[in-house]
Amino acid sequence: MPKRHVEPRFTRKAESKTPSQPLVARRSANYQPSLWEHEYLLSLGNTYVKEDNIERVMLLKQEVSKMLNETEGLLDQLELVDTLQRLGVSYHFEREIKKTLTNVHVKNVRAHKKRRDRWEDLYATALEFRLLRQHGFNIAEDVLYGNIGDDLDDKDIKGILSLYEASYLSTRIDTKLKETICYTTKRLRKFVEVNKTENKSYTLRRMVIHALEMPYHRRVGRLEARWYIDVYGERHDLNPILLEFAKLDFNFVQAIHQDELKSLSSWWSKTGLTKHLDFVRDRITEGYFSSVGVIYEPEFAYHRQMLTKVFMLITTIDDIYDIYGTLEELQLFTTIVEKWDVNRLEELPKYMKLCFLCLVNEINQIGYFVLRDKGFNVIPYLKKSWADMCTTFLKEAKWYKSGYKPNFEEYMQNGWISSSVPTILLHLFCLFSDQALDILVSYNHSVVRSSATILRLANDLATSSVSHGFTTYNI
Protein backbone atom coordinates (compact mmCIF):
# COMPACT_ATOMS: atom_id res chain seq x y z
CA MET A 1 0.00 0.00 0.00
CA PRO A 2 1.22 3.54 -0.65
CA LYS A 3 2.94 5.15 2.30
CA ARG A 4 2.81 8.90 2.39
CA HIS A 5 5.68 11.35 2.20
CA VAL A 6 8.72 10.90 4.41
CA GLU A 7 11.09 13.37 6.00
CA PRO A 8 13.79 14.54 3.57
CA ARG A 9 16.83 12.52 4.56
CA PHE A 10 19.49 12.86 1.92
CA THR A 11 21.60 9.87 1.01
CA ARG A 12 25.21 9.94 -0.07
CA LYS A 13 24.10 8.79 -3.48
CA ALA A 14 23.81 11.25 -6.29
CA GLU A 15 23.09 10.97 -9.97
CA SER A 16 24.23 12.94 -12.95
CA LYS A 17 23.28 12.45 -16.58
CA THR A 18 26.54 13.90 -17.87
CA PRO A 19 29.80 14.97 -16.20
CA SER A 20 28.88 18.61 -16.78
CA GLN A 21 25.55 18.43 -14.97
CA PRO A 22 25.28 19.02 -11.20
CA LEU A 23 24.76 16.10 -8.89
CA VAL A 24 21.18 15.39 -7.85
CA ALA A 25 20.64 14.78 -4.14
CA ARG A 26 18.31 11.88 -3.47
CA ARG A 27 16.13 11.37 -0.42
CA SER A 28 15.83 8.12 1.53
CA ALA A 29 13.14 6.73 3.80
CA ASN A 30 15.75 4.56 5.52
CA TYR A 31 13.65 1.45 5.03
CA GLN A 32 15.16 -1.52 6.81
CA PRO A 33 16.07 -4.70 4.89
CA SER A 34 13.40 -7.34 4.69
CA LEU A 35 13.09 -9.63 7.69
CA TRP A 36 12.23 -12.43 5.27
CA GLU A 37 15.24 -13.19 3.12
CA HIS A 38 14.66 -15.04 -0.14
CA GLU A 39 16.79 -18.01 0.92
CA TYR A 40 14.84 -18.35 4.15
CA LEU A 41 11.50 -18.35 2.34
CA LEU A 42 12.73 -21.06 0.00
CA SER A 43 13.68 -23.19 3.01
CA LEU A 44 10.13 -23.22 4.39
CA GLY A 45 8.71 -26.71 4.47
CA ASN A 46 5.32 -28.16 5.29
CA THR A 47 4.59 -31.88 5.41
CA TYR A 48 0.82 -31.58 5.64
CA VAL A 49 0.19 -31.81 1.89
CA LYS A 50 0.46 -35.58 1.88
CA GLU A 51 -1.95 -38.05 0.38
CA ASP A 52 -3.01 -39.50 3.74
CA ASN A 53 -3.68 -36.03 5.18
CA ILE A 54 -5.64 -35.03 2.08
CA GLU A 55 -7.77 -38.16 2.34
CA ARG A 56 -8.42 -37.46 6.02
CA VAL A 57 -9.46 -33.88 5.24
CA MET A 58 -11.91 -35.06 2.58
CA LEU A 59 -13.40 -37.62 4.96
CA LEU A 60 -13.85 -35.04 7.71
CA LYS A 61 -15.34 -32.61 5.22
CA GLN A 62 -18.04 -35.15 4.41
CA GLU A 63 -18.77 -35.56 8.12
CA VAL A 64 -19.13 -31.80 8.62
CA SER A 65 -21.34 -31.48 5.55
CA LYS A 66 -23.53 -34.19 7.04
CA MET A 67 -23.75 -32.17 10.27
CA LEU A 68 -24.94 -29.11 8.38
CA ASN A 69 -27.63 -31.06 6.59
CA GLU A 70 -28.85 -32.97 9.63
CA THR A 71 -28.77 -30.29 12.34
CA GLU A 72 -32.39 -29.34 12.99
CA GLY A 73 -32.68 -26.73 15.72
CA LEU A 74 -32.39 -23.16 14.44
CA LEU A 75 -30.02 -22.10 17.20
CA ASP A 76 -27.91 -25.22 16.69
CA GLN A 77 -27.72 -24.42 12.97
CA LEU A 78 -26.64 -20.84 13.64
CA GLU A 79 -24.00 -21.89 16.14
CA LEU A 80 -22.61 -24.45 13.72
CA VAL A 81 -22.37 -21.86 10.93
CA ASP A 82 -20.68 -19.40 13.29
CA THR A 83 -18.20 -22.03 14.47
CA LEU A 84 -17.30 -23.00 10.90
CA GLN A 85 -16.70 -19.36 10.05
CA ARG A 86 -14.51 -18.71 13.07
CA LEU A 87 -12.51 -21.89 12.48
CA GLY A 88 -11.82 -20.74 8.92
CA VAL A 89 -13.43 -23.68 7.14
CA SER A 90 -16.78 -22.22 6.07
CA TYR A 91 -15.50 -21.78 2.50
CA HIS A 92 -15.93 -25.54 2.06
CA PHE A 93 -19.66 -25.29 2.72
CA GLU A 94 -20.87 -22.11 1.05
CA ARG A 95 -23.85 -23.80 -0.61
CA GLU A 96 -25.02 -25.49 2.59
CA ILE A 97 -24.55 -22.33 4.65
CA LYS A 98 -26.47 -20.20 2.16
CA LYS A 99 -29.33 -22.70 2.22
CA THR A 100 -29.38 -22.73 6.02
CA LEU A 101 -29.35 -18.96 6.40
CA THR A 102 -31.94 -18.48 3.67
CA ASN A 103 -34.32 -20.72 5.61
CA VAL A 104 -33.54 -18.83 8.82
CA HIS A 105 -34.20 -15.51 7.10
CA VAL A 106 -37.54 -16.67 5.69
CA LYS A 107 -38.67 -17.78 9.14
CA ASN A 108 -37.43 -14.50 10.60
CA VAL A 109 -39.49 -12.46 8.14
CA ARG A 110 -42.61 -14.51 8.81
CA ALA A 111 -42.22 -14.20 12.56
CA HIS A 112 -41.63 -10.45 12.32
CA LYS A 113 -44.76 -9.94 10.23
CA LYS A 114 -46.78 -11.84 12.83
CA ARG A 115 -45.11 -9.79 15.57
CA ARG A 116 -43.92 -12.89 17.37
CA ASP A 117 -40.70 -13.15 19.34
CA ARG A 118 -38.67 -16.01 17.90
CA TRP A 119 -36.03 -16.19 20.59
CA GLU A 120 -36.18 -16.09 24.35
CA ASP A 121 -32.60 -14.97 24.87
CA LEU A 122 -30.33 -12.16 23.75
CA TYR A 123 -27.51 -14.42 22.58
CA ALA A 124 -29.58 -16.26 19.97
CA THR A 125 -31.26 -13.10 18.68
CA ALA A 126 -27.98 -11.23 18.21
CA LEU A 127 -26.24 -14.25 16.68
CA GLU A 128 -28.99 -14.65 14.10
CA PHE A 129 -28.90 -10.94 13.27
CA ARG A 130 -25.11 -10.89 12.85
CA LEU A 131 -24.92 -13.97 10.64
CA LEU A 132 -27.72 -12.78 8.38
CA ARG A 133 -26.11 -9.38 7.92
CA GLN A 134 -22.67 -10.89 7.37
CA HIS A 135 -24.10 -12.90 4.50
CA GLY A 136 -25.89 -9.98 2.88
CA PHE A 137 -29.47 -10.61 3.97
CA ASN A 138 -31.66 -7.54 4.32
CA ILE A 139 -32.61 -7.46 7.98
CA ALA A 140 -33.55 -4.24 9.77
CA GLU A 141 -32.26 -3.36 13.21
CA ASP A 142 -35.86 -3.16 14.42
CA VAL A 143 -36.03 -6.95 14.08
CA LEU A 144 -33.18 -7.23 16.57
CA TYR A 145 -34.50 -4.74 19.09
CA GLY A 146 -38.08 -5.85 18.66
CA ASN A 147 -37.07 -9.26 19.94
CA ILE A 148 -34.69 -8.44 22.78
CA GLY A 149 -36.59 -5.54 24.32
CA ASP A 150 -35.10 -2.65 26.29
CA ASP A 151 -34.09 -4.33 29.55
CA LEU A 152 -30.96 -6.48 29.35
CA ASP A 153 -29.53 -8.65 32.09
CA ASP A 154 -26.02 -7.44 32.94
CA LYS A 155 -25.15 -10.97 34.04
CA ASP A 156 -25.84 -12.35 30.57
CA ILE A 157 -22.29 -11.74 29.31
CA LYS A 158 -22.60 -14.31 26.53
CA GLY A 159 -25.64 -12.46 25.22
CA ILE A 160 -24.08 -9.02 25.62
CA LEU A 161 -20.96 -10.19 23.77
CA SER A 162 -23.16 -11.50 20.96
CA LEU A 163 -24.99 -8.17 20.80
CA TYR A 164 -21.67 -6.28 20.84
CA GLU A 165 -20.43 -8.27 17.84
CA ALA A 166 -23.73 -7.76 16.00
CA SER A 167 -23.64 -4.00 16.62
CA TYR A 168 -20.57 -3.60 14.44
CA LEU A 169 -22.57 -4.59 11.37
CA SER A 170 -24.53 -1.36 11.46
CA THR A 171 -25.36 0.55 8.29
CA ARG A 172 -25.70 4.25 7.66
CA ILE A 173 -29.40 4.26 8.50
CA ASP A 174 -29.04 2.36 11.78
CA THR A 175 -29.17 4.42 14.97
CA LYS A 176 -29.72 2.00 17.83
CA LEU A 177 -26.85 -0.28 16.85
CA LYS A 178 -24.32 2.54 17.14
CA GLU A 179 -25.61 3.37 20.61
CA THR A 180 -25.47 -0.30 21.55
CA ILE A 181 -21.71 -0.42 20.90
CA CYS A 182 -21.12 2.01 23.77
CA TYR A 183 -23.55 0.23 26.08
CA THR A 184 -22.15 -3.24 25.51
CA THR A 185 -18.52 -2.09 25.60
CA LYS A 186 -18.95 -0.69 29.11
CA ARG A 187 -20.51 -3.88 30.42
CA LEU A 188 -17.94 -6.13 28.80
CA ARG A 189 -15.07 -4.08 30.22
CA LYS A 190 -16.65 -4.33 33.65
CA PHE A 191 -16.87 -8.11 33.27
CA VAL A 192 -13.17 -8.33 32.36
CA GLU A 193 -12.22 -6.18 35.34
CA VAL A 194 -14.23 -8.23 37.82
CA ASN A 195 -13.16 -11.66 36.51
CA LYS A 196 -9.37 -11.34 36.62
CA THR A 197 -8.61 -14.80 37.97
CA GLU A 198 -8.97 -18.04 36.07
CA ASN A 199 -12.34 -19.64 36.75
CA LYS A 200 -15.23 -21.16 34.90
CA SER A 201 -15.54 -17.89 32.95
CA TYR A 202 -11.94 -18.04 31.67
CA THR A 203 -12.78 -18.96 28.07
CA LEU A 204 -15.61 -16.43 27.93
CA ARG A 205 -13.32 -13.76 29.39
CA ARG A 206 -10.75 -14.56 26.73
CA MET A 207 -13.40 -14.14 24.04
CA VAL A 208 -14.51 -10.82 25.54
CA ILE A 209 -10.98 -9.41 25.71
CA HIS A 210 -10.38 -10.47 22.12
CA ALA A 211 -13.61 -8.83 20.95
CA LEU A 212 -12.88 -5.59 22.79
CA GLU A 213 -9.48 -5.37 21.11
CA MET A 214 -11.18 -5.66 17.73
CA PRO A 215 -14.63 -7.04 16.85
CA TYR A 216 -14.81 -10.24 14.83
CA HIS A 217 -16.29 -8.50 11.79
CA ARG A 218 -13.13 -6.40 11.37
CA ARG A 219 -10.53 -9.10 11.83
CA VAL A 220 -8.43 -10.88 9.21
CA GLY A 221 -9.98 -14.28 8.61
CA ARG A 222 -6.83 -16.42 8.61
CA LEU A 223 -5.44 -14.86 11.78
CA GLU A 224 -8.80 -15.20 13.49
CA ALA A 225 -9.02 -18.86 12.49
CA ARG A 226 -5.60 -19.63 13.97
CA TRP A 227 -6.54 -17.91 17.22
CA TYR A 228 -9.98 -19.48 17.47
CA ILE A 229 -8.73 -23.02 16.85
CA ASP A 230 -6.89 -22.79 20.18
CA VAL A 231 -9.87 -21.23 21.95
CA TYR A 232 -12.30 -23.79 20.57
CA GLY A 233 -10.01 -26.56 21.76
CA GLU A 234 -10.50 -25.34 25.35
CA ARG A 235 -14.29 -25.47 25.24
CA HIS A 236 -16.01 -28.23 27.18
CA ASP A 237 -18.63 -28.59 24.44
CA LEU A 238 -16.21 -28.80 21.52
CA ASN A 239 -16.88 -31.13 18.62
CA PRO A 240 -13.71 -33.21 18.02
CA ILE A 241 -14.56 -33.68 14.34
CA LEU A 242 -14.75 -29.92 13.78
CA LEU A 243 -11.53 -29.32 15.70
CA GLU A 244 -9.55 -31.95 13.81
CA PHE A 245 -10.92 -30.76 10.48
CA ALA A 246 -10.04 -27.14 11.26
CA LYS A 247 -6.47 -28.00 12.28
CA LEU A 248 -5.78 -30.16 9.24
CA ASP A 249 -7.38 -27.68 6.87
CA PHE A 250 -5.44 -24.75 8.32
CA ASN A 251 -2.13 -26.55 7.89
CA PHE A 252 -3.09 -27.74 4.42
CA VAL A 253 -3.97 -24.21 3.27
CA GLN A 254 -0.88 -22.79 4.95
CA ALA A 255 1.29 -25.20 2.95
CA ILE A 256 -0.31 -23.92 -0.26
CA HIS A 257 0.32 -20.33 0.82
CA GLN A 258 3.96 -21.09 1.61
CA ASP A 259 4.54 -22.54 -1.85
CA GLU A 260 2.94 -19.48 -3.42
CA LEU A 261 5.14 -17.19 -1.35
CA LYS A 262 8.25 -19.05 -2.49
CA SER A 263 7.22 -18.57 -6.10
CA LEU A 264 6.49 -14.88 -5.56
CA SER A 265 9.78 -14.34 -3.75
CA SER A 266 11.58 -15.80 -6.77
CA TRP A 267 9.59 -13.52 -9.09
CA TRP A 268 10.39 -10.47 -6.95
CA SER A 269 14.09 -11.34 -6.89
CA LYS A 270 14.18 -11.84 -10.66
CA THR A 271 12.61 -8.44 -11.35
CA GLY A 272 15.79 -6.83 -10.02
CA LEU A 273 13.80 -3.91 -8.62
CA THR A 274 15.25 -4.06 -5.12
CA LYS A 275 18.75 -4.52 -6.53
CA HIS A 276 18.66 -1.57 -8.92
CA LEU A 277 16.17 0.56 -6.94
CA ASP A 278 17.60 0.05 -3.48
CA PHE A 279 15.53 2.88 -2.00
CA VAL A 280 12.22 1.00 -2.35
CA ARG A 281 10.52 -1.20 0.22
CA ASP A 282 11.55 -4.85 -0.02
CA ARG A 283 8.34 -6.29 1.39
CA ILE A 284 7.25 -9.27 -0.71
CA THR A 285 6.18 -11.27 2.36
CA GLU A 286 4.08 -8.41 3.69
CA GLY A 287 2.58 -7.90 0.24
CA TYR A 288 1.60 -11.55 0.01
CA PHE A 289 0.19 -11.46 3.54
CA SER A 290 -2.10 -8.63 2.45
CA SER A 291 -3.29 -10.73 -0.47
CA VAL A 292 -4.04 -13.66 1.81
CA GLY A 293 -6.03 -11.29 4.00
CA VAL A 294 -8.16 -10.35 1.00
CA ILE A 295 -8.68 -13.81 -0.49
CA TYR A 296 -7.21 -16.91 1.13
CA GLU A 297 -9.11 -19.85 -0.38
CA PRO A 298 -6.87 -22.38 -2.18
CA GLU A 299 -8.71 -22.12 -5.50
CA PHE A 300 -7.77 -18.44 -5.83
CA ALA A 301 -4.03 -19.00 -6.11
CA TYR A 302 -3.62 -16.91 -9.27
CA HIS A 303 -5.67 -14.07 -7.80
CA ARG A 304 -3.39 -13.90 -4.75
CA GLN A 305 -0.21 -14.00 -6.81
CA MET A 306 -1.47 -11.36 -9.22
CA LEU A 307 -2.62 -9.16 -6.36
CA THR A 308 0.74 -9.46 -4.61
CA LYS A 309 2.55 -8.40 -7.78
CA VAL A 310 0.24 -5.40 -8.06
CA PHE A 311 0.93 -4.50 -4.42
CA MET A 312 4.68 -4.63 -5.01
CA LEU A 313 4.52 -2.53 -8.17
CA ILE A 314 2.36 0.05 -6.40
CA THR A 315 4.76 0.36 -3.45
CA THR A 316 7.74 0.58 -5.81
CA ILE A 317 6.18 3.35 -7.89
CA ASP A 318 4.92 5.09 -4.76
CA ASP A 319 8.47 5.15 -3.35
CA ILE A 320 9.73 6.61 -6.62
CA TYR A 321 7.26 9.48 -6.32
CA ASP A 322 7.54 9.92 -2.56
CA ILE A 323 11.26 9.53 -2.08
CA TYR A 324 13.63 9.34 -4.99
CA GLY A 325 12.43 11.00 -8.16
CA THR A 326 12.98 14.61 -9.07
CA LEU A 327 9.93 16.56 -10.17
CA GLU A 328 11.17 16.59 -13.77
CA GLU A 329 11.63 12.80 -13.74
CA LEU A 330 8.23 12.25 -12.15
CA GLN A 331 6.46 14.39 -14.73
CA LEU A 332 8.13 12.45 -17.53
CA PHE A 333 7.33 9.09 -15.93
CA THR A 334 3.67 10.09 -15.49
CA THR A 335 3.41 11.14 -19.13
CA ILE A 336 4.89 7.87 -20.39
CA VAL A 337 2.59 5.83 -18.14
CA GLU A 338 -0.38 7.81 -19.47
CA LYS A 339 0.68 7.09 -23.05
CA TRP A 340 1.77 3.54 -22.13
CA ASP A 341 4.51 4.07 -24.68
CA VAL A 342 7.38 1.59 -24.51
CA ASN A 343 9.01 3.39 -27.45
CA ARG A 344 9.80 6.29 -25.12
CA LEU A 345 11.63 4.07 -22.67
CA GLU A 346 15.03 5.61 -23.46
CA GLU A 347 13.81 9.01 -22.26
CA LEU A 348 13.58 7.71 -18.71
CA PRO A 349 16.40 7.48 -16.15
CA LYS A 350 17.79 3.98 -15.76
CA TYR A 351 15.95 3.21 -12.52
CA MET A 352 12.63 4.25 -14.06
CA LYS A 353 13.19 2.20 -17.21
CA LEU A 354 13.30 -1.03 -15.25
CA CYS A 355 10.22 -0.14 -13.22
CA PHE A 356 8.11 0.93 -16.21
CA LEU A 357 9.01 -2.11 -18.30
CA CYS A 358 8.24 -4.43 -15.38
CA LEU A 359 4.87 -2.71 -14.99
CA VAL A 360 4.03 -3.05 -18.68
CA ASN A 361 5.02 -6.72 -18.76
CA GLU A 362 2.95 -7.64 -15.72
CA ILE A 363 -0.15 -5.74 -16.86
CA ASN A 364 0.04 -7.28 -20.31
CA GLN A 365 0.32 -10.73 -18.74
CA ILE A 366 -2.76 -10.10 -16.59
CA GLY A 367 -4.60 -8.89 -19.67
CA TYR A 368 -3.60 -12.03 -21.54
CA PHE A 369 -4.93 -14.37 -18.84
CA VAL A 370 -8.22 -12.46 -18.54
CA LEU A 371 -8.70 -12.48 -22.32
CA ARG A 372 -7.91 -16.19 -22.47
CA ASP A 373 -10.09 -17.24 -19.55
CA LYS A 374 -12.88 -14.63 -19.51
CA GLY A 375 -12.98 -13.48 -23.11
CA PHE A 376 -12.72 -9.71 -22.68
CA ASN A 377 -9.89 -7.20 -22.96
CA VAL A 378 -9.11 -5.43 -19.68
CA ILE A 379 -5.80 -3.85 -20.64
CA PRO A 380 -7.30 -0.43 -21.53
CA TYR A 381 -8.98 -0.28 -18.11
CA LEU A 382 -5.84 -1.37 -16.28
CA LYS A 383 -3.66 1.12 -18.14
CA LYS A 384 -6.03 3.96 -17.24
CA SER A 385 -6.09 2.98 -13.58
CA TRP A 386 -2.28 3.14 -13.37
CA ALA A 387 -2.22 6.44 -15.23
CA ASP A 388 -4.84 7.93 -12.90
CA MET A 389 -2.97 6.73 -9.83
CA CYS A 390 0.38 8.07 -11.06
CA THR A 391 -1.28 11.41 -11.79
CA THR A 392 -2.40 11.66 -8.17
CA PHE A 393 1.06 10.61 -6.99
CA LEU A 394 2.52 13.42 -9.09
CA LYS A 395 0.13 15.99 -7.65
CA GLU A 396 1.09 15.01 -4.11
CA ALA A 397 4.77 15.19 -5.03
CA LYS A 398 4.23 18.72 -6.37
CA TRP A 399 2.41 19.70 -3.19
CA TYR A 400 5.24 18.39 -1.07
CA LYS A 401 8.09 19.88 -3.08
CA SER A 402 6.41 23.29 -3.26
CA GLY A 403 5.31 23.32 0.37
CA TYR A 404 1.66 23.66 -0.61
CA LYS A 405 -0.89 22.50 1.96
CA PRO A 406 -4.25 21.58 0.44
CA ASN A 407 -7.43 21.78 2.45
CA PHE A 408 -9.12 18.57 3.48
CA GLU A 409 -11.59 18.48 0.58
CA GLU A 410 -8.87 19.06 -2.01
CA TYR A 411 -6.62 16.48 -0.40
CA MET A 412 -9.30 13.78 -0.30
CA GLN A 413 -10.40 14.47 -3.87
CA ASN A 414 -6.92 13.40 -4.88
CA GLY A 415 -6.14 11.07 -1.98
CA TRP A 416 -8.85 8.47 -2.43
CA ILE A 417 -7.34 7.62 -5.83
CA SER A 418 -3.75 7.78 -4.57
CA SER A 419 -4.76 5.28 -1.88
CA SER A 420 -4.43 2.71 -4.70
CA VAL A 421 -7.76 1.10 -3.80
CA PRO A 422 -9.41 1.75 -7.21
CA THR A 423 -6.40 0.23 -8.96
CA ILE A 424 -6.25 -2.79 -6.66
CA LEU A 425 -9.97 -3.52 -6.88
CA LEU A 426 -9.95 -3.19 -10.65
CA HIS A 427 -7.18 -5.76 -11.02
CA LEU A 428 -8.84 -8.16 -8.61
CA PHE A 429 -12.40 -8.04 -9.86
CA CYS A 430 -11.54 -8.15 -13.54
CA LEU A 431 -10.56 -11.76 -12.86
CA PHE A 432 -14.13 -12.64 -11.89
CA SER A 433 -16.51 -11.17 -14.44
CA ASP A 434 -17.06 -8.33 -16.89
CA GLN A 435 -20.12 -7.30 -14.82
CA ALA A 436 -17.89 -6.59 -11.83
CA LEU A 437 -15.55 -4.70 -14.14
CA ASP A 438 -18.38 -2.49 -15.41
CA ILE A 439 -19.13 -1.44 -11.84
CA LEU A 440 -15.55 -0.80 -10.79
CA VAL A 441 -14.49 1.22 -13.83
CA SER A 442 -16.88 3.88 -12.59
CA TYR A 443 -14.64 5.60 -10.06
CA ASN A 444 -17.61 7.39 -8.56
CA HIS A 445 -19.15 4.11 -7.44
CA SER A 446 -19.83 4.53 -3.73
CA VAL A 447 -18.32 1.19 -2.70
CA VAL A 448 -15.02 1.97 -4.40
CA ARG A 449 -14.80 5.54 -3.20
CA SER A 450 -15.86 4.78 0.37
CA SER A 451 -13.34 1.94 0.66
CA ALA A 452 -10.61 4.13 -0.76
CA THR A 453 -11.43 6.99 1.60
CA ILE A 454 -11.24 4.71 4.64
CA LEU A 455 -7.88 3.31 3.58
CA ARG A 456 -6.50 6.74 2.71
CA LEU A 457 -7.27 8.14 6.16
CA ALA A 458 -6.16 5.00 8.00
CA ASN A 459 -2.92 4.94 6.01
CA ASP A 460 -2.19 8.58 6.78
CA LEU A 461 -2.86 8.14 10.48
CA ALA A 462 -0.50 5.17 10.61
CA THR A 463 2.21 6.94 8.62
CA SER A 464 2.17 10.02 10.84
CA SER A 465 2.85 7.88 13.90
CA VAL A 466 6.03 6.16 12.73
CA SER A 467 9.39 7.64 13.54
CA HIS A 468 10.46 8.46 9.99
CA GLY A 469 7.02 9.53 8.80
CA PHE A 470 5.92 12.88 7.51
CA THR A 471 2.65 14.20 8.86
CA THR A 472 0.42 14.43 5.83
CA TYR A 473 0.24 18.07 4.81
CA ASN A 474 -0.87 19.15 8.29
CA ILE A 475 -4.51 18.81 7.30
TrEMBL record:
Terpene synthase metal-binding domain sequence ranges: 270-465
Region (Disordered): 1-24
Entry keyword annotation includes Ubl conjugation: no
GO molecular function terms listed in the Swiss-Prot or TrEMBL record: magnesium ion binding; terpene synthase activity
GO biological process: diterpenoid biosynthetic process
Compositional bias per record (Basic and acidic residues), positions renumbered to this chain: 1-16
Domain Terpene synthase N-terminal, residue spans: 36-212
UniProt keyword list: Magnesium, Manganese, Metal-binding
Name of the protein this chain belongs to: Terpene synthase N-terminal domain
